[in-house]
Amino acid sequence: MKRVVSVSLGSSSRDHKVVVDLLGEEIEIARRGTDGDFDRALEMLGELDGKVDAIGLGGIDVYLFVRQKRYAIRDGLKLMEAVKNTPVVDGSGLKNTLEREVVRVLAEETGLLKKGVRVLMVSSVDRFGMAEALSEMGCDVTYGDLIFTAGIPYAIKTVEELEEIANRILPEIIKMPFHMIYPTGKKQESQDEDKVRKFARFYHDAEVIAGDFHLIRRFMPAEMDSQTILTNTTTWNDIDFLRQKGAGALVTTTPEYEGRSFGTNVMEAALVAMLGKQLSEITAEDYLDLLGRLKFKPRILYFKT
Amino acid sequence: MATHLEITESLKTFTDNYSKNERLKIMNRDWDRVVLIKATDIESIHTLTLKDGVLSLNEGASGAPDLTVVSDSETLADVFYGDINPTEPYNNGTLRVMGSEDDITRLDFIILMIWGE
Questions:
Q1: What is the pLDDT of residue A259?
Q2: CATH at B40
């Protein structure tokens, strides 16, 4: 049996282990959180190196893509470089392919996404593929990167402006301590009440809220009006949270196993383990082909009728 | 070592560039803050005041600061002239910024919006 482990800077309360059957092959998938403890993550990665078939890095991005440009977050790279023998991925390769595909599937097979739908992406540079796909479909997208990462209430409205701002600031932002730009550890279990109040209008004005779940959760106000949440990495508790806030539906881009959807880093690690190729040899087409054979579809959960 | 006058000039350049950037003024309409800039190796204190999106510069201390930026004179002049980005000196401790983490992050973004690549 192949083993895949995701080491996450997120909360250990979300730890989970399942054995799944993928195309007749049993794969044990585990997630281990370090509650924001960077050194513990480094230690854990060292222990796992060479002992499992693939490792995912969770609770942190390593690579951010802005069209063809790739930026590497310094803290994420440190974690990745701690692993010498086992393939290690952060999910960005899969996000760039899977999430474009999910947008297409939702448009073609459901009424949840269509031209003119108002979408709030709480962060876009960590899933530029989705950002581009939504824009290409003609959705009215608000890219909330400055709002929810820097606290600047400025709605970016085009992919072109997103690209211009990202290319201006990302070369330096990637050098910042990761906890300054993304909620890690216990912050993932609480809400930033000041910003929830301050930025509630962006959530209430949208029909679809898309992006990283920890960011969506940290800033989501009460009294949502049946909005669709397009994300991944949700647990039963997260589903209860969304239901209580008044969300209308949850779409997760990765499949559900035992009541929760794993992060893209976990799924990418599982695909890498299945492909059995060198990381440098794996292409987007390999992922798409395998996803097709696995019949991966987004999970859609409706809260209200 | 930079002089007080050089720091003043760098801050004027920074303020001028901010003021020419209409997008930045829109971005900061909600963020009224007083930022004290203090050199460690010479007698030099300045205050940047952001109100209703408009940035102004004063020599000396003026009002209770929300953020205090402390570094040697050369680093301060380099950062505010845009010769170096603030992240590296901040990470290695050459540049210290006191204030809430949210305010520090936002100040960093603003500087990058002016001087970024």
A1: 66
A2: 3.30.1050.10
Beta strands A25-33 and A2-8 are parallel
| Helices B101-115 + A159-173 axis angle, to 10 | 110
Task: Tell me whether B85 touches chain A (CB under 8 Å).
Answer: yes
B16: closest CA of chain A, how far (Å): 19
- Torsion angle in degrees (nearest 10) through CA of B41, B46, B49, B55: -100
CB contact under 8 A, A146 and B91: no
Find chain A residues with C-beta within 8 A of B100's C-beta: none
A49, A84 Cβ separation under 8 angstroms: yes
* Strand residues in chain B grouped as ranges (E): 33-39, 45-51, 54-59, 67-71, 96-98
Reading the block at residue B85, the tokens are 């980005």
Q: Does B66 touch chain A (CB under 8 A)?
A: no
- Report ipTM (2 d.p.): 0.87
Q: Quick check: B113 and A167 CB within 8 A?
A: no
Determine the 3-state secondary structure of A30 from DSSP. Answer: strand
Residues of chain A above pLDDT 70, percent:
98
Q: Quick check: A83 pLDDT over 90?
A: yes
Per-residue confidence at B117, pLDDT binned at 50, 70, 90?
Answer: low
> b/e for B57-92, b at 16 or more Cβ within 10 A?
beeeebeebbbbbbbbbbbbbbbbbeebbbbebbee
Query: Smallest Cα–Cα separation from A235: which of A76, A66, A33?
Result: A33
Alpha-carbon distance A153 to nearest alpha carbon in chain B (angstroms) = 6
Distance of CA A45 to the CA centre of its chain: 21
DSSP state of A49: T
Nearest to B106 by CA among A147, A195, A72: A147
Amino acid type, B70: V
Contact A165 B113 (CB under 8 A): yes
Numbered ranges of CATH 3.40.50 in chain A:
95-255
- By residue range, what is the domain housing residue B55? 4-115
pLDDT above 90 for B71: yes
CATH (residue range A95-255): 3.40.50
- The residue type of A266 is V
